[in-house]
Design brief:
Layout: H1 2-14, E1 28-36, E2 45-50, E3 54-60, H2 77-87, H3 96-105, E4 110-117, E5 120-127, E6 137-140, H4 146-149, E7 154-155, H5 156-168, H6 181-192, H7 220-231, H8 236-275, H9 284-311, H10 315-352, E8 360-361, H11 363-366, H12 373-377, E9 382-383, H13 384-490, H14 492-509, E10 516-521, E11 524-529, H15 538-558, E12 566-570, H16 579-594, E13 604-609, E14 623-627
Parallel strand pairs: 3-13, 3-14, 12-13
Antiparallel strand pairs: 1-2, 1-4, 4-5, 5-6, 6-7, 8-9, 10-11
Helix pairs in contact: 5-6, 6-7, 8-13, 9-13, 10-13, 14-15
């Protein structure tokens, strides 16, 4: 222990773990967590846990020699850390089986926390029963119990935005419109609060799908990049270079996709043109030009032939026109005669209906015979003018009717002749149109070929342009890769400084003779441990992961990088940590904690353990809650499921 204390102070002199300006408090940390059965002033407080800055231990009681069953497993340690992660923004606090169990037994229950974000106290409440229907909310305040009755609820998203802004505000380029700050924060949270199921296998392995946190697994390269952003082994120029590099890669994907689509179109056209007896050899343009000229000549020839057919006179056209005019004239004459007949009939009807006028004589005066019947019958008079007119009208009507009858006979004959001429004309027109349709079909076919060839030419020109773009893009990508490599090489000084922090932590968490080295290659940041050290496998991996996390946190305290100085490790002993090394972890964090007075620690570390920690940290203020399964009061939620 004396050696470790000395080394800590040596580190303080060489690198400094004295908090840098504005780093005397973790960016994010939890002071209090409460689980209640409902949100009202009569709510049952199922469990309260207070946390402190510095070291916080969530432990289980040890099994007595007389006890046969384990009392330290399935008591709620992991669930408690999941609740903390849930309060910090994760979508779920457990897998579906856990959520269903709580849904049926604790429908109205909430977890409430007091979270500090950049020194501002937030009260956060999230449902753990009906999480899909109940309200998630947060507001700035000092007493978590205000959440039970307060109506002043801010949107939960505003609180998450506040965390994301606090964590990411100093990380360069995070305000870029394409960056989803909430997702970035959740990815960083995954690093700070690794899943126990990941078993500390890798510095970039954070979330296991089986835990169903709602935070997706990110690729190793992306996780590596995010770590480098947070610990600041990635400068502005490299960020911009990487961003531009991604744009170049995206451009390449678009060009390749466009070129593939273009090639498919060319292949389809090639098949069509080959079917038209058009073969494209290596000298594509000459063959295309020759074929297009042949097609243009054929189209021009067919158009001339069509014009010739359109200009050829049809004798029946004039015959039909003349005969039609003649028939129309006869029809006009018939109409005129019929109108005249109607007029004469009207005059006759009018005359017959007229009253006798003064132009009459007494018949008995004209008769000289004594026995004249007119005298005996006393017939009064005869109107000679009326009778004359009636006779005249009748004769005219008869004449008109005779003319109409003759003209109708002539009209019928002329119409029959007209129909015969028309029938012959239509046959000749149809024959000519059939020939013209054939010509139009040939013109259409050759016009389609012409358009296809022109399209083929356009595709060829576009392909040449695309190939030039792809060539230029590939050169730009090569230049971008070289630029990033050059920037990384120029950035070695900051890397070496971080290596010193890592070297220190590694020596005290793994082995005093261990040496660690950070390399940055095409896959990003890599951590190598001295290959000559004793021991290997899972214990070595977990030790390196813990060392890496703590080096990042301590470097953040001293002013290197932007680590939030907040860590949760869920049962790292279960990741095959050797007992001595596991004990050393507690000594290390306890010593770091003791370098600061109470409530001034610039970090917060929450660790769960089923293995009894050293006596030095076995009691307050370090142990915050002790769980067991002897009875329900020892369980986190004080109930069995």
């Amino acid at each position: 222990m004396n050696l470790m204390i000395q080394l800590l102070f040596d580190l303080q002199e060489n690198l400094s773990i004295i908090p840098a300006v504005k780093r005397s408090e973790p960016v994010v940390w939890i002071e209090h967590l409460a689980i209640v059965d409902s949100l009202n002033d009569r709510a049952e407080i199922i469990r309260e846990v207070s946390f402190r800055r510095g070291l916080n231990i969530i432990r289980t009681e040890q099994r007595l020699p007389s006890e046969k069953n384990s009392i330290g497993h399935d008591v709620g340690k992991t669930l408690l850390t999941r609740f903390i992660r849930y309060l910090l923004g994760e979508q779920f606090y457990g897998n579906r089986a856990v959520r269903n169990a709580l849904y049926y037994s604790m429908k109205d229950a909430y977890v409430i926390g007091r979270i500090f974000v950049n020194g501002t106290s937030w009260i956060v409440a999230r449902p753990i029963g009906q999480i899909d229907t109940q309200k998630h909310f947060a507001f700035q305040g000092d007493d978590w119990k205000e959440a039970l009755t307060s109506q002043e609820h801010s949107k939960f998203s505003l609180y998450i935005d506040a965390i994301a802004d606090a964590i990411l505000s100093n990380i360069i380029n995070v305000n870029h419109s394409r960056v989803n700050k909430k997702n970035q924060w959740l990815n960083i949270l995954a690093w700070l609060t690794r899943d126990q199921k990941c078993a500390l296998r890798s510095i970039t392995d954070w979330r296991h799908p089986a835990t169903e946190s709602g935070t997706g697994q990110i690729q190793q390269k992306e996780a590596n990049y995010l770590i480098r952003l947070v610990i600041d082994i990635l400068d502005t120029e490299e960020q911009e270079a990487i961003f531009e590099h991604k744009k170049l890669l995206q451009k390449k994907r678009e060009l390749v996709s466009k070129n593939d689509s273009l090639q498919r179109n060319l292949n389809a056209l090639h098949v069509f043109l080959n079917g038209s007896h058009f073969e494209v050899n290596q000298d594509k343009q000459l063959v295309i030009n020759k074929h297009k000229n042949d097609i243009l000549k054929k189209i021009a020839g067919y158009k001339r032939l069509r014009q010739d057919y359109n200009r050829v006179p049809i004798p029946e056209e004039k015959q039909y026109t003349d005969k039609k005019s003649h028939v129309d004239r006869i029809d006009g004459q018939l109409t005129q005669l019929k109108n005249n007949l109607k007029y004469q009939q009207g005059l006759l009807d009018q005359r017959q209906a007229a009253t006798d006028n003064q132009h009459y004589v007494t018949i008995k005066e004209l008769c000289t015979h004594e026995d004249c019947p007119f005298k005996k019958n006393n017939v009064s008079a005869i109107d000679y003018e009326k009778e004359y007119k009636i006779k005249e009208y009748k004769e005219e009507i008869e004449r008109i009717e005779n003319d109409i009858a003759k003209l109708i006979s002539q009209y019928d004959q002329e119409k029959r002749e007209l129909a015969d001429i028309k029938s012959l004309l239509l046959r000749k027109r149809k024959d000519i149109q059939k020939r013209i349709n054939g010509i139009n079909g040939a013109i259409s076919r050759f016009s389609i070929q012409k358009k296809q060839i022109e399209q083929y030419e356009e595709y060829l020109d576009e392909q040449i342009e695309l190939n030039n773009e792809l060539k230029s893009n590939s050169q730009q990508i090569d230049e971008s890769n070289n630029k990033q490599l050059r920037i990384r090489e120029e950035y070695n000084e900051r890397k070496r400084k971080y290596e010193t922090y890592l070297e220190f932590v590694t020596q005290h968490l793994m082995n005093e003779n261990d040496h660690s080295k950070i390399t940055i290659d095409g896959n990003g940041l890599q951590v190598d441990v001295d290959k000559n050290r004793a021991g290997s496998g899972e214990a070595s991996n977990s030790g390196m992961v813990l060392s890496f996390d703590w080096a990042a946190c301590i470097a953040g305290i001293g002013g290197l990088g932007y680590h939030p100085r907040f860590l949760i490790h869920d049962s790292p002993r279960e990741a095959d940590r050797e007992h001595e090394a596991y004990q050393q972890l507690f000594y290390f964090v306890r010593q770091l904690d003791s370098m600061f007075s109470e409530n001034t620690q610039p970090f917060q570390y929450i660790i769960t353990t089923t293995t009894q920690p050293p006596n030095l940290v076995l009691d307050a203020p370090y142990v915050r809650v002790t769980l067991h399964s002897r009875d329900i009061n020892g369980l986190l939620l004080r109930r069995f499921f």
